[in-house]
Each structure stands twice: as structure tokens, then as C-alpha cells.
Write a structure and sequence with these properties.
six-stranded mixed sheet, disordered N terminus, alpha+beta, globular
Length: about 400
């Protein structure tokens, strides 16, 4: 199978920088027309033999050799917790599957938005006044000439508390996925793009160097609105490059939880832009919530699911007199408990005791959680001893590690 893949250089950063602060003409004037032309002509095309991994209804096939994203590794650096990293990436796949079915499309890590571009997008905007007051060295040193920043300008404000109120950092990370379609002869064409915007629910700041980190909770409706505005700007930048005019693009807005929360944030909205379209008509709401179980918050969504988990904990405590409680992380979709992850902490005494408890938990899973995907880990602080999984209405499976 032959597949032509595009290797993007620094030219793309300039081509996609259709920002308010500096247009292409301004950039050309600052850097020199010849520099821009040389960069644009430096896009390379390579042709190589590639194969695909085997197909699966649940997961996408991928191209071998595997292509890494030029922005690889930034999710763990930019998001505030591992819970958010996992949910952001898994949830974005789930959204993609509804637009780009796994039996029709092949996954590839995003190749358009580079690490440099993401860092630029996450920075603050520069106002026209700020740009006018910069000399050429300041413009080049700060990358202000491209003005890629999507987070709001501080407008010269330096007080961290005022900034937290008036110009907080909304955008935390951008994740891109590419989707390829295979024709009858096994040739792949690049057809689709999914872009996730991870937004902050809390603005973290310090009032003095090395001082205590302060928190300012953000209004979630405002955060969602800002994310959708940023998605529209990213669309404009992508469509500015002729290579991506005919690609279907999906945008999804994710609001991450705080750095001390033990449940991740949630995707709140999505939009699909047809090939050739240059605007986002509207975003549709996503009714998915990640909630701790048992909790008052879970009870507000589904009293039945919360009570069932309480019953599960009650039955679980009958196995050990000293057992306290388990921690459940539930994903509610349209008000129904769709999936559940449970951690059961134990103090390991003997293998026989651990096996017996694992079998007991497997039976409880079958008894209490019908029509819900469940994964249970039985573990201590350093080791997982067994895992119980169940898909939908099927019977639970038990895996005990040697």
C-alpha cells in the first residue's frame, strides 16, 4: 500500500497564523517576503510502503510504521492530572468514532499542529497597542509577530489577582487526531481531523514568587463559550492552508477538573465542519459527567445508581470486618450510569484470601451493576492483585495476576 504523508515545517505555523494581531502581510513585512516564500516551498512529500494493523470494532486500525505527532507528550505536561489526561484522550476517540467509524477509517496521530504551534496557541494574545510598542527584536523574541495566542491579553495588568478575575487562562491544551480512509485498492487518503480543546475550570496563580498557589474558580458557561470561540479561530487558521480545505473537521470542548480532584473533567460540546465549510454553524451539547460514587452529586443525577453503589459497598464490607469503603468513578451519559471504575484497597495477607475476595467481588459486580461497563481493581498502594471486568449485560470476568 502506498500513502503520501505530508511533512510540515515551520511554514505551517506562519500559514495558519490568521490572527487578529498580525496578518500575513504584516508577517511578510517583518520577516521579509523571501523568508516566507522559502518556508512555503519547503513542504516535503514522501512516499513509502506502509501496512495497517488488524481491524477491531472497538478500536481504530493504525498505520505501520506508526507516525508520532510532532506535539507528542504535551498532554501530560499541560493537563493538571493523569485523570484528565486519560479522559481527554479516551473521550476524544469516542467522539471521533461517531463521525469517523472504526470500520471505515484509520487513525493517525495529529500531524498538522506542532509542539511550537500549541505553545503559541496556549499563550496570551497581544493587543494592537502592545504590538505597536515592541521593536523588531521584541517581536521576534516573543513570537509576537505571529500573535498565535488564544488566551486573553492581560492588557498590561500585572496584579495576579486582577488577572485571575479579568483575564484568566482558559485554554490548557489542544489535541489533534487525523483520520484516513482506505479505498478498494488499499490506498489511504487523509479525510478527517478531530481537534479537542482542553479548557480550565480553575485558574491557578501566585501572588509572589515561590509563594502559595492560589485558585480562582472559573464560570463554566463562560469557559465553554471561550472554547467554542477558540475553535472557530483554529478553524480559520487551518482552512487558510489549501491542503486542509477539503477535510471534515470535528471540534470538541473538554473542561478539565481541578488538580486535586480524583475524577476527571467532562466533554461539554462538539461541532462538525463539513469539507469546504469555513464556519462553525453551531455546537451541540454533550451530556456526559464523571462523578464520584457514592456522592450527593451522583444522587442528583441518578438516585438509583447511587443507592446501588451504596448497596455494593455495604455487601463488600461484609467480607472484611475492617474494610472501610471503595472508591467508584462513574461516567453518566444522558443521566444513565454508562461505565464504572472501582478501586478496592486491601492489606495483603495471603494469596488465598486475595483470590477469595476477588471471586466475591466478581459476584457482587454481576449482582449490582446491570447494563453497565465495569472495571474493578483490587490493590494495595504498590500493586494490583486482580482485575474484574464486565461489558454491558454480560458476565464479569476475573483476572488474577501472578
Amino acid at each position: 500500500m502506498k500513502f503520501k504523508s505530508i511533512l510540515l515545517t515551520g511554514a505551517t505555523l506562519l500559514l495558519l497564523a490568521a490572527c487578529d494581531g498580525a496578518n500575513e502581510a504584516e508577517i511578510s513585512e517583518q520577516m521579509g517576503d523571501s523568508t516566507l516564500e522559502n518556508e512555503v516551498s519547503n513542504v516535503q512529500v514522501k512516499e513509502q510502503d506502509e501496512t495497517l494493523t488488524s481491524s477491531s470494532e472497538e478500536f481504530y486500525r493504525s498505520v505501520v510504521p506508526y507516525e508520532l505527532s510532532p506535539a507528542r507528550g504535551l498532554s501530560s505536561a499541560n493537563l493538571v492530572s493523569s485523570y484528565n489526561v486519560e479522559e481527554f484522550e479516551k473521550g476524544l476517540f469516542s467522539i471521533s468514532q461517531s463521525i469517523f467509524p472504526t470500520n471505515e477509517y484509520v487513525f493517525r496521530e495529529g500531524q498538522i499542529i506542532s509542539e511550537e504551534m500549541i505553545r503559541g496557541y496556549l499563550s496570551r494574545q497581544y493587543t494592537s497597542e502592545e504590538l505597536e510598542n515592541m521593536d523588531e527584536s521584541e517581536l521576534l523574541g516573543s513570537d509576537a509577530f505571529s500573535n498565535l495566542g488564544l488566551n486573553p491579553s492581560t492588557n498590561g495588568e500585572t496584579d495576579p489577582e486582577v488577572i485571575a478575575e479579568e483575564a484568566p487562562l482558559y485554554l490548557s491544551h489542544i489535541l489533534e487526531q487525523n483520520y484516513l480512509k482506505e479505498d478498494g485498492e488499499g490506498n489511504l487518503s487523509f479525510d478527517g481531523i478531530t481537534i479537542g480543546l482542553a479548557m480550565n475550570s480553575i485558574h491557578y496563580y501566585q501572588t509572589e514568587q515561590y509563594g502559595q498557589t492560589q485558585e480562582h474558580a472559573l464560570d463554566l458557561e463562560t469557559v465553554e463559550e471561550k472554547g467554542e470561540e477558540m475553535a472557530a479561530e483554529i478553524l480559520t487558521r487551518i482552512r487558510a492552508n489549501d491542503q486542509y480545505v477539503d477535510k471534515e473537521i470535528v471540534f470538541a470542548i473538554f473542561i478539565q477538573s481541578g488538580d486535586t480532584d480524583i475524577v476527571p473533567g467532562n466533554f461539554v460540546s462538539q461541532a462538525v465542519v463539513a469539507p469546504g465549510e469555513n464556519t462553525i454553524e453551531s455546537f451541540s451539547d454533550i451530556d456526559v459527567q464523571n462523578i464520584l460514587l457514592p456522592s450527593n452529586e451522583a444522587a442528583e443525577i441518578s438516585q438509583e445508581a447511587n443507592s446501588e453503589y451504596q448497596n455494593f459497598n455495604r455487601d463488600l464490607s461484609s467480607y472484611f470486618d475492617s474494610f472501610t469503603t471503595s472508591v467508584g468513578r462513574g461516567k453518566f451519559r444522558d443521566g444513565t450510569l454508562d461505565s464504572l471504575t472501582v478501586e478496592i484497597p486491601i492489606e495483603y495477607n495471603s494469596r488465598g484470601e486475595m483470590i477469595g475476595m476477588s471471586q466475591f467481588v466478581r459476584d457482587l459486580v454481576n449482582e449490582h451493576f446491570t447494563a453497565t461497563d465495569v472495571e474493578v481493581e483490587i490493590k494495595d498502594k504498590s500493586q494490583v492483585y486482580s482485575v474484574i471486568t464486565r461489558k454491558g449485560e454480560g458476565q464479569a470476568n476475573l483476572y488474577i495476576f501472578e
